[in-house]
Design goal:
The protein is mostly helical. It has one domain. Helices cover about 65% and strands about 0% of the residues. It is built from 4 helices and no strands. Helix 3 packs antiparallel against helix 4. The radius of gyration is 25 Å and the shape is elongated. The termini are far apart.
Length: about 150
Amino acid sequence: MTQPHATRSPRPVEPATRAGPGEGFRHDESDRAVGWMVFAAIVLGLVGVLNGIYGIAAIATSHFYVRDTEYALGNLETYGWAMLVVGVVQFCASLGVLAFAQWARWLGVASAAVNAIVQLLVMPAAPFLALALLAVDVLVVYGLIAYGQRWRGT
């Protein structure tokens, strides 16, 4: 069984050739948009939950944060309330983004941008955590703005 199957075509059977760069598997722009939007929604929800937990920890004056630090505005309890409110908004926006709501996309952009500013202000209490959440917020804003319109196919 090393011979190819007999064909009815008068032409000889050519062996399969490798597809060129434009003929094989191609990345569709909508697939990339779906990936970015799902990533942004999941990360937005995760950061929202983390902000809620860290906000409660800051309000309750737990020993997680560095004490006796100087803040630009207010104190750690003030930033704890800000993180808690932003966290709840981020979690709600992530659920809306997964439900294809356009308002949720813009709410996610706004809440991620506000969270980036809050993380810059709370940086004296937990610098590495604040930098990590700031970087994630930048990725969320990029994904929601750059690929949000393409996700819906409009």
